[in-house]
């Protein structure tokens, strides 16, 4: 039986975890499991996601229309307030339709 001292130094080196290092670097001998993968989508889940995407698009359109209506209302309100403060005779002077 050989003693520890008769083995070459390279074979006697061990990693921090106590496992022997074999030839190359320790990183090359570490094996990792494959990353987890999501299961395949079922047809029902695919249909549900498509329906939800359609619903979201429709809601976005409604929201855009609502924002546009609100901005138009604010613009008309600001215009009417400015016309009332200036007076109709200054905004619509005599003969304004001829220009």
Shape: elongated
Using only C-alpha atoms, the radius of gyration works out to: 39 Å
Helix content: 40-55%
Tally of contiguous helical segments: 3
Major β-sheet profile: none
Order of helices and strands: HHH
Structural class by sheet pairing and helices: mainly alpha
pLDDT under 50 segments (min length 5)? 8-12
β-strand number: 0
Question: How much is the average pLDDT?
Answer: 79
Distance, first to last CA? 116 Å
Strand content: under 5%
Spell out the blueprint of helices and strands.
Layout: H1 9-12, H2 43-86, H3 88-91
Tag the structure with descriptive keywords:
99 residues, mainly alpha, 3 helices, elongated
Description:
53% of the residues lie in helices and 0% in strands. It is mostly helical and 99 residues long. It has a domain at 42-79. The longest helix has 44 residues, at 43-86.
């Amino acid at each position: 039986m050989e003693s520890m001292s008769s083995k070459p130094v390279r074979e006697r080196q061990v990693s921090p975890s106590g496992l022997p290092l074999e030839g190359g670097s320790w990183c090359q001998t570490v094996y990792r499991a494959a990353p987890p993968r999501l299961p395949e989508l079922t047809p029902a889940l695919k249909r549900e996601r498509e329906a939800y995407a359609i619903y979201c698009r429709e809601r976005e359109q409604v929201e855009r229309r609502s924002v546009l209506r609100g901005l138009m209302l604010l613009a008309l309100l600001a215009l009417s307030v400015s016309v009332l403060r200036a007076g109709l005779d200054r905004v619509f002077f005599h003969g304004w339709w001829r220009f």
